[in-house]
Write the C-alpha cells for this entry.
Amino acid sequence: MTTDADNGAVSFRNPQYIVDTDWLEEHLDDSGITVLDVTAKLTAELRNNARADLYNPGHIPGSLFFDVASADGELSDRHAALPWMWPSADQFGETMAHYGIDNDTRVVLVARTPRAGIDSGTMWCTRAWWTMHHMGVDVAILRGGIEKWIAEDRPMTADEVAAEPATFTVRTGWERARADQLAVLAALDDPSTCVVDSLPASSFDGTDPGYGPRRGHITGAVNVSYSDLIESETAGFLPAVEMKAVLDSAHLLDEQRIITYCGGAIAATVDAFAMALFGHDDVAVYDGSLMEWSANPALPMVDPTNV
C-alpha cells in the first residue's frame, strides 16, 4: 500500500491491474494488446450462451470471445470432476498460444453483466485475471466493464477478428496461487494463514442454502464478501481508500498468508484480486471451494443457524 504524502490519500500498489475506458480506446489498435471478452450467461447445465446472445451482436472492436464461465471453459481443467478447476500448465500454454497471446502481450479483460446477481462481469474478470496473471500473462481488467464503454458511446462492432497463433511459456511457481482441500485443512491449524469466505453474509451465517449439502462456512474462516469490494458487478471496483477500509476491517492486509474460497472459486478471486491491488502477494484461491468442501461431512463446517 502506498499513500500520497501531500494529501494522505490511499492508492493501489499495483494500479496497472486495472485500466479505464480512455486508456483502452487509445490503445485498441496497438499490436501488443489483446482484448478478451469473458462475459458469462450461464445455463443450468453450466453452458455459456454469451457468445451468441451478446458478443456476436456487438462487442468492443478487436476483442476475442474467451469463454471462462462454462464448466469446461478455456481456463478449466476439462478432466476434473468439478467445474472451474485450474488447468494444467500445458493446457494453459496451448490456450494462450491459440488466442495469439505470447509473453510480451498485454491482455485486457472485459465483460458485461447480463443478469445482475447471476452473471457477474466482475468475478469472471477476476477469475480469468487470477489464473492468467499467476501463469505469466501481463493482464488487466477494464474498470466499469462493457456497460461503461457503451454508456460513453465508444465504438462497438459485430465484426470478428482471428488470432494469429503464438508461443507462450508458463511462469513457474503458479501453484502457490491455488489451494486444494489439504492446504485449507492444514491452514485451519496454522496461525500464519487466514481463511477467507468471499460469499455474502447470508451464506456465511447459514441463512441461505449455500453451495452444497451443508450450510454455513468453513470452521475458522472470516467473512469478507466480494460484494463489499465493488460498486457494481461490471468490474466497478471501489476506490482504493474504500477498498482498503473493507480489507482492514478484517485485518487481511496484515495477514501473512491468505486462502480465499466461495462456492466454486469464482467470487473468491474478487477478494484475492483486491489484495493483489495492494501488493499482498501470498494469497491463494481454494479451487474446489464449498462445492467440494461441503460435500464431505468429515471436513469441519459451522452452521450458525444450527449451533
Q: What stands out?
A: Residues 121-134 form the longest helix (14 residues).
